Amino acid sequence: MEERQKRAVIRFFNAYWLKEYVMLLKHCEVYFSKSGKQPMLISVIDKRRKTKGLTDRFKGIVSVYALSKAMGVPFRLIFDHPFELSEFLEPNVYNWKPQAGELSDCVADVRFKIMTKQPPLSKLTKIFPLTRQVWVYAKVDYLEEINTQYHTDFHWGALFHELFKPSELLEQHLRIHLDNLGGGDFIACVFRFQSLLGDFKEYHFQALDPAARQELILKNTEALRKIVEQSDVPVLVTSDSVTFLAAAEDLPGVYIIPGKVVHIDNVDDAGKEVYMKSFIDFLMLSRARKIYSIGTGAMYKTDFPKYAAKLNEVPFERILVE
After folding, report:
1. What stretch of H or E contains 37?
2. Model confidence pTM above 0.85
3. Judging by beta carbons within 10 Å of its beta carbon (0-12, 13-18, 19+), is residue 141 exposed, middle or buried?
4. φ, ψ of residue 237 in degrees (nearest 5)
5. d(CA 165, CA 87)
6. End-to-end Cα, the chain, rounded Å
7. CA 91, CA 108: separation in Å to the nearest integer?
8. What number of helices (H) and strands (E) belong to the chain?
9. DSSP code per residue over 280-317
């Protein structure tokens, strides 16, 4: 088979419409009748699709919720992989948990939509007026487009707070760290190394050699030192690298939340306390006076602190280390 034909075959079997159709047939048990159950939008995080990191998952969830509000249709959330979201975040103003018997398993009632690799919002909006229960796998922030198209004025943080509040256990952790920071007046610095320092598993990214690792650590600790020296409040430091955190913790005025960090799309068998760390970091950042995202050009320009800042409209700044 010629290379062009091979690529055509691969594209066909990777086509989202085909994957959506296969998911539908696997999901449903009833094929030839309708259940009459209520149409709704359902944001889904489960083991059937990879959805990247926590921030991307929140982007998709909030976008689907915003669309449901704009169109006046019910919204539900299924988030059960690699953990049950309700262990960390519970429904707040809006109850997004599906109720017993509410979801349909009929082919005629259900559709799947895979919103990855930034497809246009029209892939979702064309399903309206809604006549089915649409299961949406999304990792893109469509909020600005939704506001423009539907003349709404939704704010990301406000929507997030409508959906979520910390579980009792998560809130206990947050109170402890806020107390340790002297009551809550602090700034935050975030460093995202991916696999560069060799201590964080993420996709296929390769670690630097030992000399380059040390140079990268020194550049970033020096950038952190300058901020610490200019700050009149404690500095919360978060990172995906325990190696960097070990180097940063010796700086006076720095506060580090203990615990291991994992990428939830790559590690699906970590303990609850490990996944808890990501939620603690995210919500602690959202309570800072200001958030800095710091790194060299080789480091990942993470959206984790940017979206934590959106929760409570905290000032956010990126600092490029030369």
Report:
1. none
2. yes
3. buried
4. -120, 125
5. 11
6. 49
7. 29
8. 11, 11
9. HHHHHHTTSS-EEEEE-TTS---SHHHHHHHHTT--EE
d(CA 41, CA 142): 15
Please report, as a single letter, which amino acid is at residue 61. Answer: I
User: DSSP string covering 252-290, please?
Assistant: TTEEE--S----TTT-SS--HHHHHHHHHHHHHHTTSS-
DSSP assignment, residue 131?
A: -
Of 48, 13, 41, 43, the closest CA to residue 27 belongs to 48
Q: Please, how many CA atoms are within 13 Å of residue 121, restricted to the half-sphere of its CB?
A: 16
DSSP SS3 for 181:
coil
- In Å, what is the CA distance from 188 to each residue of 5, 69, 197, 213, 314? 52, 33, 21, 23, 11
d(CA 256, CA 245): 7
pLDDT digits (tens, 9 = 90+) for 114-157: 987 778 999 999 999 999 999 999 999 999 999 999 999 999 99
For 170, how many CA atoms within 13 A lie in the half-sphere containing its CB? 22
Which top CATH class is 168-320?
alpha beta
Helices (H), 15-155: 16-27, 54-71, 122-125, 143-150
Q: Is the pLDDT of residue 8 over 60?
A: no
Q: Which residues make Cβ contacts (< 8 Å) with residue 192, sequence separation at least 6?
A: 239, 240, 293, 295, 299, 300, 301, 302, 304
Q: What is the pLDDT of residues 162-195, one digit of tens each?
A: 999 999 999 999 999 999 998 879 999 999 998 8
- Tokens 């947050």 belong to residue: 174
